[in-house]
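Final report, results section. Input specification for complex C-07:
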Amino acid sequence: MQFGYLPQFPPALTQPILFGALLAVGLLVGEAARRYASLPRITGYVLAGILLGPRVSGLLGPDALEAARVLVDLSIGLIVFELGFRFDLAWLKRNRWLFVAAIAESVLCFLAIHFALLYLGFQALHAASAAAIGTATSPAVVMLVAHDQRAEGQITERMLLFTAINSIFAYVGLTLLLPLLRLEHAVNWVHAVLHPVYLLVGSVLVGFIACVVMLGLARWLGKREDRQFVLLVALVVLTVGAARALNLSVMVALVVLGMLARNLDRRHVLMPLRAGHGGQLFFVILFVLTGASLEFDALATASFAVAGFITARFLGKTVAIYAFSRATGLRKRSAGLLSVALLPMSGLAVVMLHDAQSLVPGLRQELAAVVMASIALLELAGPVATQLALRRAGETRPEPRDA
Amino acid sequence: MPEAVTDERQFRRSDHCSIGVELELQVVRARDFDLSRDAADLIDRLEKRTLSGAVKPEITEGMIELNTSIHDRHATLLDELRSMRDAVVEEAGILNLYVVGGGSHPFHDWTERRITPSERFNALFERYGFLAKQFTVFGQHAHVGCRDGDEAVYLVHMLTRYVPHFIALSASSPYYQGEDTAFQSSRLTAVSAFPLAGHMPFVADWAAFLEYYETMRGFGIVQSMKDFYWDIRPKPEYGTIEIRVCDTPLAVERAAQLATYAQVLAAFHLAERPSAPSRAAYLVNAYNRFEACRYGFRGEMVEPYAARKKRIGDDILETLAMLAPHAKALGAATVLDALADLVRHGRSDADWQRAQRGKAGALEDVVRESAARWAGGRADGP
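Structure output:
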């Protein structure tokens, strides 16, 4: 074999090649979406994911998706941490109505979806768990649009605050529904009760411990942005890993870490968080992979239910935000824009749905498909809505001109 | 401030030595203490309250300006400033914002600033380009009422000698664009870049001033008296002279003290007319101004009427002692005592800011502590 040093043909598609291609295609489609269609970059990333995913080209198969799980977790971890880090208890103390409004937004949205699904003939418990999942706005989408558009202002801040609260509401709601769902499937009631307790208490505890470690180390490191950033990434990765290893919720552990880091930092040892170019990298990975795992099946079979789900969700959010706009110091027009900005649904909901399905095998396939299709639609339309709302609110900055 | 009279060449008569204050303030985000873009929302909320003074937008979106009404005495001015401060802090809290004094924001990036949308500010940006955004600095303007234009011209000339005092006493902009400038007040360099900055020409009286103004208008260099960005300028539509060299102090108490110092200085000069204005005051002005900006109380100044060099701090203390009888008559004795203490301890707002940096390490901490100082111990401060 004289040519033994040559690779086999065609060369194997190794992980680095796939990963590099994922980044490059995501970046290019994202940029093309922005330049030629004035769409948000995220919508482009998601489209790239759909193109690369099992349903179109099949380059990113289920194996690749599973292998990339750690990257997705890390990306979500960083995003959710920042979301929690922006959660300012002092603000809620000064503006108590804001907290009331955020809770009302979650509750009304939950109820609206719940009753819409009941009306569509779904069983109460299943409708409730789907409603809980639907309550969450996608932290990743709102955060990336805010970063991408360099948005600043009252609507941006409230959008992020409401997203933090409705994401927690969704997760806690779903977790509390679990025992009921599992009892239905004849699981021992002790375990049915212990499991959500373990999930919630355990996740909070992991977040708390990580926060104590972070504050201690940050104090020792001193106020240097570069060092503190590495510390932050290290602890986020560790927390993600610990939560996974202990079968806890990555989302809750990270959002708790972020919230506590902001609100327990009495000595002000932490520097404010500023996303650099590294952040963009994670966003591309996250959204391409999310795009690759989207399922549109129910769009054809249950389009009516999907439309009902999305409409009820939007109405629930809008009614609550309008009702409390005055009390929280928001102008009427801004209330409308905030409702639109909170539209996105995404990766987090996918994760919650998978968790719920794996724990409760009986969660009706049909309903899961409806939720999945709604997620898929709002994954594409949501970023557009958020970007439009923030632009209309005048809180974005024009892009620097292309060279 | 009163309604402006239509013809700005007419000097509106004011009560003798009445005072008023304008303060430009920073509106920062609670999240990272950088300048916000929320001044319009804050002003919106403040307009729904009944305030004795006015709150206005400024050239970029993280700035607001407070205007007090007219006062005869320090005590009522301070009361009004405090009640306006309370309202501003409270409404800012609802929006998760802090309001902060200080002549410059320590670490904001001027390229990130956005011009407040309005015809006037857009026109300024159109004309001055980057200077308009770099003008995101925060000053206190102190007005002193004059009975006529001749009095105003006389006072502008005489008070020019005290420009280094006002700079040193108010200095609170040691940091600029994330760097320690080594200056006590870095803010005035942002003002100096404008073509009509500087000082009033050495005119003899109001008639001569009007002649100068008409000439400049004839050349098409200015459209109105607002176009002069002088350190001290007559403001005929208010019937005042306006001292514009002060940084916005870190607390309203100092702001009221500075205005009162200007009031007592004016009362002294109008009552005693110690000397005729000298051109020498303008010859030494640039030097004195630099020394005060750079070194504060520790700088040197040339006293133009005695033609000798002194430490700025010493000159302030001598002046305060000389003013004592007039201060007493205006109920301002304790105010001048407080300023004398400030000079004797040699701890300006700029020194305090540097100490905060040394203690906590980061410029964000300087802004947070400054916000707490501005809030004056209110619970809704940081």
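The interface with chain B takes residues 86, 88, 90-91, 94-95, 152-154, 157, 222-223, 268, 271-274, 329, 331, 395, 397 of chain A (CB under 8 Å). Residues 14 and 238 of chain A are 27 Å apart (CA to CA). This concludes the modelling results for the funded period.
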